[in-house]
Amino acid sequence: MKKPAVIRGIGLFAILGLLVAGAWGSVALAGTNPHVAEAIAHAEGAVKHGEQGHADALVEHAQEALTHAQGAQKDVKNPHLDEGVHELMEAVEHGKAGHADVGTKHAKSAVMHLKEVK
Prior knowledge:
By secondary structure, the chain is mainly α. The protein folds into 2 domains: 1-32; 33-115, Up-down Bundle (Four Helix Bundle (Hemerythrin (Met), subunit A)), CATH 1.20.120. The protein has helices spanning 5-31, 34-51, 55-73, 79-96, 100-115. Helix 2 (34-51) packs antiparallel against helix 3 (55-73) and helix 3 packs antiparallel against helix 4. The longest helix is centred in the first third of the chain and has 27 residues, at 5-31.
């Protein structure tokens, strides 16, 4: 026996709704990942200290941000997260060399990318 078109339409609509909800749910989970939030907070701290010329404090905060960003990579696949990790690695490297100005530029770039992780 054939199902009426209305019932078939409702079934298809329900399936489509579940697929859309699932896709949005995974996007929302990435944006609320606690590691991403911590990485942003520490990267902003790195920027603040770097702007004051404190290369050692920049390294400390950038390293902590890097640890959290790498932790987030285990749960979240996002090119902005990957780029944020790269920029944090550069910030740490330049900060260790005493180049607070260059390290700060990389930390700022990391903040920009990490804030785009959705």
